[in-house]
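Input/output pair, single chain:
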Amino acid sequence: MFGFLTPARREETGPLANVAAADNFWRSLPRNDPLAAQKALCEVLSDLAARKDLNRELMRGLLALDQRSRSLREALLVNYASRNPQAKPFERRYWRAAIELAQAFALAFAQFLHHMRNEPSAKGWREYAPAVVLRLFRHRQVEFLLRPFLNDAAIPQVWAGLH
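Output:
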């Protein structure tokens, strides 16, 4: 009768609120423009990495989105072997986007690992830790392998923090 007096449970919203939201977000990304899809995905991931109120459903949404984005990562890791001089800048833009996407995912996964390690409330979901660590390493590997092709210097602090 007095439903307005009972505190409403705040429902999580956003593209990574849960697996279903991550799937909906993934379906909304442009399929014919990998750079636009990468940009939208990086924005969502940077919002997630800045959050302090992490939960298990957000982590599941992140893991689902990482799984779905495999085809996008492959599209960004193009290797144009043609002798066309205009292919080089095109290739570099895609590789730069692949590095940015890898960094965004790595930061989000690192945020969750930090949360699992330091927050008592997250100790119960450590069963996800191996999957999160593996995906963090995969994204750092992409970043590490592409840096020389883009004339970027390696960042030792990234690897020191990972170890």
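DSSP finds seven helices and no strands in the chain. Residues 1-11 have pLDDT under 50 and may be disordered.
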